[in-house]
Structure formats: structure tokens, C-alpha cells
Write a structure and sequence with these properties.
Helices cover 47% and strands 18% of the residues. With 675 residues, the protein is an alpha+beta fold. The chain folds into five domains: 167 residues, no CATH class; 115 residues, Chitinase A, domain 3, CATH 3.10.50; 105 residues, Roll (Chitinase A, domain 3); 89 residues, no CATH class; 101 residues. Strands 16, 17, 18, 19 and 20 form a five-stranded antiparallel β-sheet that branches. A hairpin with a 2-residue loop joins strand 13 and strand 14. The longest helix has 30 residues. The N terminus is likely disordered.
Length: 675
């Protein structure tokens, strides 16, 4: 029963979601149906009718009349649920609010911007970028003066490079990214990368940095790019067709610590010798097992976990990209870790847009670029609703916040008298104290240095929250499609809950009612003619005569075949049951009369042969013990069908009572006009 309910609500919710793709009809507020004091407009009816009859011509009067009856029944049930107060129940209110939040979210994102971002992401997915950078750190919420100081510093660095200094040298000297310079890690020196970040693709870097890298030509250096980490200058060093995702095996020879020139030459000779042995026909996997220094992969044929372009050092990525076909090997490759010979197992390059777009959407929801879509909506909300700020009043509030804010002891009550407006939106004024109450919930122990920056960051967030709340409060008013969709959800949940109570669950729980319904309607659940029979399969045909004699003797003694132990004999398979025509291929073939049937080959009955015996010489015959006339099925034998019919009966009775309880008026002139 629970499965049935889940199927019903799933189908219902699916039908509702299809409304998102339906264009709104021009609203017609004329009353088509009145149920007591409730007025139902033409638009309300047509919205549902057209959605559920997309292939129906409006001129098909019979179709509309038929649907009108169903729609009236639907609205009667919904009205009953409201009259019972089900729409005020806490569980219902919370459930509907959850659905509304999901349905409203697309209205707070600009679809055109979202589509542009997805297309941009896909275009970038087609290429891997290699870039170097120099970073000058500055907090993302820093005050303008601090940001300006960092900007001037990064521009000075950029000028040095344009004056002819080497990028890697300047990076090692000035970058706030510690990987740019040599450093000690876990007791050993690690060579700096000079700002080289290797290869990466879309979503591998924060969005502003990604955009800066993809918009900089190879060999060029960007203007400063601001990210959450600070200012960067980016040097694009390579751009190649996307490697995609690759599975690779490698034979690896590690370089000794503090390797000498002689060590390097020896390792190079070793890897070249192994490469030649592969070319001469020795198996890659055998040489890996014997010589590879990668203990994690040598027992797996050298296979490494699947990776993208940002997961390996640049030399590795270039070598993988150069391998043409699965199974091919690379020439020896030197990286900062040692020497490698690579074998391509599988590579999956990016597919077309339709293939990639779902994954791009998933990644974009977790990426900062998604904020651009919402920011566009917020700017539109501000423009439509006369947004205006009063900076001097905001500064006055900032001056009134004391150090107790950092002890989480500050209260908006300290500025209770601060009532000046800090901004206005949609004809409403928002005061200093309004924002102070919001700010009280955001207290932090982060220290005193960044109070002003923190204050203004929270202010921007507060304004955004107010903008979204204002738009959210007007969705039903601004968008008829959304209003009707919410009405459908509201009515649908109410209908489901009350129908479950009055029909679906009741039919399962009301055992006395079900029994009474069955007693009155048992003639609707009839078995046809059936016979009782034993089916005997013999894997050893030589035993047939003996078995037939045993069966005849058992029948004369009124014993069952199990009483004489036939079911325990080797080479004998016994199946007993009551059969209707169509239940069993063998039973369908025999004459329906009491007694033993003729013998047939089991191979003539694939259904039985496949599952019961693998002996192609097996035979089959039967003993018909009784012919049964048509008779009612028991309630247990037809419970599913009886329960379904009982549900239909309960629903019909419910609708009948609702029509007696409420007065339904259809305005025929309006109906005629829309047909």
C-alpha cells in the first residue's frame, strides 16, 4: 500500500513540475465555478486543464466537460480539507514552505547570466591552461586603503618584470605564495616552483583567477587580478587541448636525495635501457613489477588513480597529452620526482555541451561564479524598487560600536535611539537600529583590526538579504505562473493528505469495511474453471512404469503422492497445485479430466525444462485429481484488487457526500465562451 501511495504522489508532483515549462495564459478572472463562497476563475481552471490535456483541442467540448467534472471533484476535496483546518497544521505549513523555497530559488538567479556562465565554463573545459603567478596578499574584506596599498605593490612587481627581470626570480623574491621559493618541508629542502602552478582547467582555480588566466594570451602577463587571497599577476605559459580525465600506468625510477650529475646520468641510462626493452617486446607490466620504485602501483601494473590536468606535474601532463592511443607508451619523461615511462590505459576527453552541462551545473552551484547570477538579480531589484543609501548615517552607527563587539557582548540596545535611515527600498526605510539588530547576531572574536571592513561586509550582506526578502514577498503578485504553481502545490498536498486519510490508508486499516465490501461484491472476483493436479517430471524414463503403478495404487488408497514419498525419490520432481488455463504450459496441453495423463517429452516445455531439469531425455506426465467449477476468490487471493476497488468505492462515496454538503454552481455562459 505504501508503494501505491508513493507512486501516486510521485506522479502528482511530476505533473506539477511540468508547470515550470508552461507559458502563462492571459489571465481571465471571470468566475467559472462557485463552491459555496469560493470563486474559481477561468484562468485557474484552464491552467490545470491545458497542463493535463496538452494534445487536446480547446474546441473538444466533451473533453472539457469530462475534465470539468474531475476538476470539481478535486476542488471539493480541497475545500473540505481547508474547512477542516488542515491548511493551518504545522506539518503542512512547514512542508509547503519547503517546496516554496525550492520553487522560488530560480527567481533569484538570472537565467541569461547562468546560461552565459555555463557556456563560458564549457568553452574553457575544452582547454588546459598552464600559468604562473605572483601573489600579494590582502584580505577580501580589507578597507579601500589597504586594498590600494596591495594593488600598488603588485603593480610595482609587474613593472619589474616588464623592465626585463625574470618572472621566476621575482616570484621567488616577492610572492606571498610560499611554494614560489625553496623551503624546508619535513626536514628536507623542497625546490620552489617560481610561481608555476602547472596545468589546470575550469573549476580548478577560484573564478577570478581562472578568468584572468584564460583571458591572458600565452607569453603575456595580466593586469592584477583580485581574489579572496589578494592580488595576483598571471603569466600564461601554455594552452593546449584538454587532456580530460586519464588513467595511466607508469614505470618510475626515483632520483636519489642530493643526486649528483653522475647519479642523474646513471638513472637516465637505466630508464633508456628499460624503454628499449619495451620497444623490443618485453611486457610493460613485467618491467614495472621488477624495476619500478613506486611501491603503491608496481603490484597493479603501475596503474595510477584516474586524474585530471591539475593533479600531476606539468611534464607528466604534457607526456600524457602526447600519447595518441590506449596501450601506447611514452618516451622516458623527467619530472621533479624522477624518471617515468607512461602507458595510457584510458583517456576521456570532454564531450559535447549536452553531455557536460549537467556536471557543469553541479559544479557551478558550489562555485563563486554562481553569485554573479544572483548579483544581477539583486541589482535589478534595487533598480526596480528605488534603492537609496545614506552613508553618513551608516558611518554614525559604526562609530557607536565599541570593543564589546569582539567579546560577543555587544547589544543593539546600546544604540536603541539610533533611528536614522541607512537605506530605503520599495518605499520602506531601514534604520540604523534595524541593521544593529542584524549585526548583533554576527558578533565575532576576530579582533579589533578589521572592525570597519567586517562592518561593511555585513552591511552588504544585510542589504542583499532585504532585497531577496522583498522580491520573495512579491513573487505571487509579480509572476502568475508562480502563484498558480504554489496554489497547485498547496492544493495537491492538502488533497494527498485528506485522500490518504479518507481513502488510501482507510482501505488498508478498515478490515471490517473491506470484508463487508467483499461480501457484497464477491461475485466480481471469480476464478474460472480450474483443476487440481500433480505434475511428475522423470529424469530417468526407465522408471516410468514403476512410478505410474505407485501413483495408481496411491489414488486407489486415497493417498497423496507425498504420502507415498514420491517427492523424495531420486530422479523424480513433483509439483502439486491448482491450475487455471494459462498458468502452466503442460496443464494447458492435457485433457481436463481426472486420471493420469499421457507422457510427453520435457523438452517440449521450455518453461519447465529450463528450470527443473537439464536432462534432455526427461519426461513429464500428470495426475488430474479434481476439476473445480468457477468460484469466488477468497479475500486473501484477491486482496490487492479488492483493496483497489474498495478505495474507488470510498472515493465515490466521499465525493457524493461532498456534493451533498457543498453547493456547486457552474457558470454555463462562461464555460460556453471558453469552449
Amino acid at each position: 500500500m505504501m508503494k501505491s501511495i508513493l507512486v501516486k504522489i510521485s506522479v502528482f508532483i511530476f505533473a506539477l513540475f511540468t508547470a515550470l515549462s508552461i507559458q502563462a495564459q492571459k489571465e481571465d478572472h471571470r468566475t467559472l465555478i462557485a463552491i459555496d463562497d469560493e470563486q474559481i476563475s477561468v484562468s485557474e481552471f484552464l491552467n490545470v486543464y491545458l497542463k493535463n490535456n496538452v494534445d487536446t483541442d480547446l474546441a473538444d467540448k466533451k473533453s472539457m466537460q469530462d475534465y470539468l467534472e474531475l476538476y470539481i471533484n478535486f476542488r471539493l476535496k480541497v475545500k473540505e480539507s481547508r474547512d477542516l483546518g488542515m491548511d493551518t497544521a504545522k506539518a503542512f505549513v512547514n512542508e509547503l514552505a519547503g517546496y516554496r523555497k525550492q520553487l522560488a530559488d530560480p527567481y533569484f538567479n538570472d537565467q541569461e547570466v547562468t546560461d552565459e556562465l555555463l557556456r563560458e565554463a564549457y568553452d574553457r573545459l575544452m582547454y588546459d591552461i598552464r600559468a604562473s603567478h605572483i601573489l600579494i596578499k590582502v584580505d577580501e574584506n580589507a578597507l579601500p586603503a589597504d586594498s590600494l596599498l596591495a594593488y600598488k605593490k603588485i603593480m610595482t612587481v609587474r613593472d619589474r618584470i616588464f623592465a626585463g627581470e625574470d618572472f621566476t626570480v621575482v616570484a621567488a623574491e616577492t610572492s606571498d605564495d610560499p611554494s614560489a621559493r625553496d623551503r624546508e618541508t619535513q626536514g628536507q629542502m623542497r625546490k620552489g616552483n617560481g610561481g608555476d602552478l602547472g596545468y589546470f582547467t575550469v573549476f580548478d582555480m577560484v573564478y577570478p583567477f581562472e578568468s584572468g588566466a584564460y583571458s591572458t594570451a600565452v607569453g603575456e602577463i595580466s593586469m592584477p587580478v583580485r581574489t579572496a587571497y589578494g592580488y595576483h599577476i598571471i603569466k600564461a605559459t601554455d594552452r593546449q587541448e584538454a587532456m580530460g580525465k586519464a588513467t595511466v600506468a607508469h614505470l618510475y625510477l626515483s632520483m636519489p636525495k642530493n643526486a649528483t650529475a653522475q647519479d642523474s646520468l646513471r638513472k637516465e641510462n637505466e630508464i633508456n635501457d628499460l624503454y628499449q626493452r619495451m620497444l623490443d617486446g618485453e611486457k610493460f607490466e613485467s618491467l614495472v613489477s621488477a624495476f619500478s620504485d613506486d611501491r603503491g602501483s608496481k603490484d597493479k601494473g603501475g596503474i595510477l588513480p584516474r586524474f585530471g590536468s591539475n593533479r600531476m606535474v606539468p611534464e607528466f601532463i604534457v607526456a600524457v597529452s602526447d600519447i595518441q592511443d590506449s596501450g601506447d607508451i611514452s618516451q622516458p619523461v623527467l619530472t621533479s620526482f624522477g624518471w617515468h615511462i607512461l602507458k595510457l590505459i584510458h583517456r576521456q576527453r570532454p564531450g559535447d555541451y549536452k553531455v557536460e552541462v549537467l556536471e557543469l551545473k553541479r559544479k557551478m552551484t558550489k562555485d563563486t561564479r554562481a553569485q554573479k547570477s544572483r548579483e544581477t538579480v539583486i541589482l535589478k531589484i534595487k533598480s526596480e524598487n528605488g534603492f537609496k543609501e545614506f552613508p553618513e548615517n551608516l558611518q554614525e552607527l559604526l562609530n557607536a560600536i565599541d570593543s564589546s563587539f569582539y567579546a560577543r557582548e555587544w547589544s543593539a540596545d546600546k544604540v536603541l535611539s539610533f533611528g536614522k535611515k541607512i537605506f530605503q527600498l520599495g518605499g520602506k526605510k531601514y534604520s540604523q537600529h534595524d541593521f544593529a539588530s542584524y549585526l548583533e547576531q554576527k558578533q565575532t572574536r576576530r579582533g579589533t583590526a578589521g572592525l570597519e571592513a567586517f562592518f561593511y561586509t555585513q552591511y552588504r550582506d544585510y542589504v542583499n538579504v532585504i532585497c531577496i526578502e522583498l522580491e520573495d514577498s512579491r513573487l505571487e503578485e509579480k509572476y502568475p505562473d508562480f502563484r498558480m504553481l504554489m496554489q497547485e502545490y498547496r492544493d495537491g498536498i492538502l488533497l494527498f493528505n485528506l485522500t490518504d486519510e479518507r481513502v488510501w490508508s482507510k482501505a488498508v486499516k478498515d478490515t471490517l469495511g473491506l470484508q463487508e465490501f467483499y461480501s457484497v461484491n464477491s461475485g466480481n472476483y471469480m476464478w474460472g474453471e480450474r483443476l487440481e493436479a500433480d505434475i511428475i517430471i522423470l529424469n530417468d524414463p526407465a522408471l516410468e512404469e514403476e512410478i505410474r503403478k505407485m501413483i495408481t495404487a496411491a489414488a486407489e488408497g486415497k493417498q497423496s503422492l507425498m504420502d507415498i514419498g514420491l517427492d523424495t525419490m531420486r530422479s523424480v520432481i513433483l509439483q502439486s497445485g491448482i491450475y487455471a488455463m494459462g498458468d502452466n504450459d503442460f496443464i494447458d496441453m492435457v485433457e481436463w479430466k481426472e486420471g493420469l495423463t499421457p507422457t510427453m517429452q520435457l523438452t517440449d516445455f521450455n518453461e519447465l525444462y529450463d528450470g527443473r531439469s537439464n536432462n534432455e531425455n526427461s519426461i513429464i506426465f500428470g495426475l488430474v485429481t479434481n476439476l473445480r467449477d468457477p468460484e469466488p476468490k477468497s479475500i486473501d487471493e484477491a486482496r490487492g484488487l479488492i483493496t483497489s476497488d474498495y478505495q474507488n468505492f470510498l472515493e465515490e462515496e466521499w465525493v457524493r457526500l461532498l456534493k451533498e454538503k457543498y453547493t456547486v454552481v457552474v457558470h454555463e455562459d462562461v464555460l460556453e465562451d471558453i469552449q
